[in-house]
Design goal:
Blueprint: E1 2-6, H1 11-29, E2 33-37, H2 49-57, E3 62-64, H3 75-81, E4 100-104, E5 109-116, H4 127-136, E6 142-149, H5 153-163, E7 169-173, E8 183-184, E9 190-192, E10 198-200, H6 209-217, E11 232-242, E12 247-256
Parallel strand pairs: 1-2, 2-3, 5-6, 6-7, 7-9
Antiparallel strand pairs: 1-11, 4-5, 8-9, 10-11, 11-12
C-alpha cells in the first residue's frame, strides 16, 4: 500500500497549503491512505471543528495529535465524536478520545497510533510501555504506523529502534522541521525523525518572524506571537508498505516550497 503522511499543519496557512498541494500529490502518488498531524491546525493553535472538517474533507483518513490536542475549547468533544481524530495514546489520566484507530483497507487494517514523547514535553505516560501494550492488543490484520510527537531526536530514534520489526512505520512530528534521515531500519520498520510542517514558509515554525525574534532578544517584553503569511510549504513523506509482511519497502520525502 501507499501511505501519505503530512504535518504538522500550522493554522490557516497550513490548511491553505494542503488545499493547494494535495490534489497534485494525490495524482502523483495515488495514496491508499492519508494521515495528517493536525494538533496545530486551528487558527492560532490546537484543533477545532473547522480545521478538523477541512482536513477530513481533503482526504485525511486519520488525524494524529500531540501536546496541543486539547488546547482549544471544545476539543474534548471533537475527540469523543470522531474515532479518527486522535490524541496521544499515552496522555495521562483518563483523557477524552482515543490514541489509536483502524482504517479498514479490505484485506487488512491500517492501524494508526498517536504517541507523545516524554522528554521536554508536558507530562505523559511512558511511550515505550504504552506502545508495548497497544501492540499486545493488536490483531493479525493490523498494518501499524506510529506518529511519535516529540521534541528529542534521541527519544524518537530510540522508540523507532525499539519498535523495529513490530510496526511498519514510525515518523516523528512536533519540531516543524523536516529531517533528512528517512530510511528503513534493519528489521523492516520505516523511519523519519520529523516529517516537518505544512504552513507559511518564511516563518519560525509557522509563526511570524518579528515577534518570535523579538521574544528571544527581549524576553522581558514579549510580543504576541502571530501566524506568518506569504508563500506556503508542504512537508511529509510517502511510504510503500507491504500489507503481507507488515514492513516498509521504501520512503520518499515530500518537501514542496513556494506554493
Amino acid at each position: 500500500m501507499i501511505l501519505l503522511c503530512l504535518g504538522d499543519v500550522v493554522s490557516a496557512a497550513g490548511i491553505e497549503a494542503l488545499h493547494k498541494a494535495l490534489p497534485a500529490l494525490k495524482r502523483k502518488y495515488r495514496p491508499d491512505c492519508i494521515v495528517i498531524n493536525g494538533e496545530n491546525s486551528a487558527i492560532g493553535n490546537g484543533v477545532d471543528r473547522s480545521a478538523m472538517e477541512a482536513l477530513f474533507s481533503m482526504g485525511a483518513d486519520a488525524i494524529t495529535g500531540g501536546n496541543h490536542s486539547f488546547q482549544r475549547k471544545g476539543a474534548e468533544e471533537l475527540h469523543e465524536e470522531n474515532p479518527f481524530l486522535l490524541r496521544p495514546a499515552n496522555w495521562p489520566g483518563d483523557p477524552f478520545g482515543r490514541g489509536t484507530c483502524r482504517v479498514d483497507m479490505g484485506a487488512y487494517d491500517l492501524r494508526v497510533i498517536s504517541l507523545q514523547g516524554a522528554l521536554f514535553m508536558n507530562k505523559c505516560e511512558n511511550p515505550f510501555l504504552v506502545l508495548d501494550q497497544l501492540l499486545k492488543e493488536g490483531t493479525p490484520r493490523d498494518l501499524t504506523v506510529v506518529d511519535f510527537h516529540g521534541e528529542a531526536t534521541a527519544e524518537k530514534q530510540a522508540l523507532a529502534r525499539y519498535a523495529d520489526g513490530r510496526v511498519a512505520l514510525v515518523f516523528g512530528t512536533h519540531t516543524h522541521v523536516q529531517t533528512n534521515d528517512a530510511g528503513v531500519l534493519p528489521k523492516g520498520t520505516g523511519y523519519l525523525s520529523d516529517i516537518g510542517m505544512c504552513g507559511a514558509e518564511h516563518s519560525i515554525l509557522g509563526k511570524g518572524l518579528e515577534p518570535c525574534i523579538h521574544n528571544f532578544i527581549d524576553p522581558d517584553h514579549r510580543m504576541k506571537i502571530t501566524d506568518a503569511e506569504g508563500p506556503l510549504m508542504v512537508n511529509g513523506l510517502v511510504a510503500e508498505l507491504d500489507e503481507k509482511t507488515k514492513r516498509c519497502k521504501r520512503i520518499e520525502l515530500i518537501n514542496l516550497r513556494e506554493i
